[in-house]
Amino acid sequence: MPRRKKPQQVCYFWFGNSMITLHGVIEAMRGGLWRAQKAELGANNQKLETPRHAFGGATLAQHWQATQRDPKLLENMRLLPWVIIHEQSVIPSVPMYRPGSVAAARGLTHYCRQQRGGGPQIMFMMTWGRRGGFKGHGVQYGNFLTHNQAIYEGYLLYIHATSTPDRPTYLAPVGLVFETIYNDCLTQDPESREPGSYNSLFARLYGNDGYHQSKLGALAAGMTVATAITGFNPYKQNHNPGGLSQEDMNAVKDAVARTILQTFESGQLLYPWKTSWTGSTAPTSAVCRADKETSTCASPDTTVVQSIGT
Question: Range of 205's domain?
Fold first, then answer.
């Protein structure tokens, strides 16, 4: 009787903090990746692993410092197609912290590309605006939309600073999925109430603190990352963390699908796949757009950005 082959271990490594460790963000992503690999590749003999360097309040600068202390952090991961990176929640939205944060993103990207075979591909996970906006550290964002836009602009700076013509980095636009749901709630509510002010689908993406993800928000985040990496149909990603209604899960799938398709088909964001699950293709000029006047970044030896809150 032939010996059964040992499953091939495939690692998707995360640099993050509580925005990925709470309520199963990584598990939702892994569920989507598994479905995509099985459907597209027939990869039944692969074991998906999701190792991470993550702790509460961790910043990109702290992750980058960790790689300097332990240069062999990724060395033993034989198959490492992707590294997923995200910054502490509000830092991308605070201009005074952006230079150091972008420098750390450059340092982490450079470190990853020193691994065997040219290193893994890089996906930044855009986090989301706080439910009621954010005030502090020299900024004042009065509501979710303005804060979310500032976070998006910060993540585009990371993409511009770390991409090269032959090695682009990519963005999983979780915050834009939250925004799609926000706008849906605003449109559907007959009283046009602020979606974060009542028990709307948008409000249910958040925990009680108004910025960490709930179980539903974690599902949205993990599914967005899986779709951004694979281009696999979100409607066919069946990860169920338990305790969520089918209606809410279907609404999240729909928001992920519409957001990814809109940013792909318009060329707003570049993805690592060329054809969507609907058969549409990206324009040849697809790029991440950012205000070039604000994209001047410090070198990687800049002063470390410290934690300013989860």
Answer: 8-294
Farthest CA pair distance, the chain = 69
283 is a domain residue = yes
* Residue 27, amino acid: E
The total domain count for the chain is 1
For residue 124, what are its two tokens?
Answer: 């930044």
Q: What is the full DSSP assignment across 220-253?
A: HHHHHHHHHHH---GGG-----SS--HHHHHHHH
Burial 105-133 (b: 16+ CB within 10 A, else e): bbbbbebbbeeeeebbbbbbbbbbbbbbb
Read off the CATH number of the domain in which 163 is found.
Answer: 3.40.50.1110
Residue 184 C-beta-side C-alpha neighbours within 13 Å: 17
pLDDT tens for each residue of the chain, 310 residues long: 555 556 677 889 999 999 899 998 999 998 888 878 776 655 556 778 889 999 999 999 999 999 999 888 887 776 889 999 999 989 999 999 999 999 999 999 999 998 878 889 999 999 999 999 999 999 999 999 999 999 999 999 999 999 999 999 999 999 999 999 999 999 998 888 889 888 999 999 999 999 999 999 999 999 999 999 999 999 998 888 888 999 999 999 999 999 999 999 999 999 999 999 999 998 876 555 444 333 333 333 333 333 333 3
In a domain, 300, yes or no: no
Are 5 and 11 spatial neighbours (Cβ–Cβ below 8 Å)?
A: no
Q: Chain-centre distance of CA 266, in angstroms?
A: 19
What are the residues whose beta carbons fall under 8 Å from the beta carbon of 116, sequence distance 6 or more?
A: none
pLDDT in tens, 168-227: 999 999 999 999 999 999 999 888 888 988 899 999 999 999 999 999 999 999 999 999
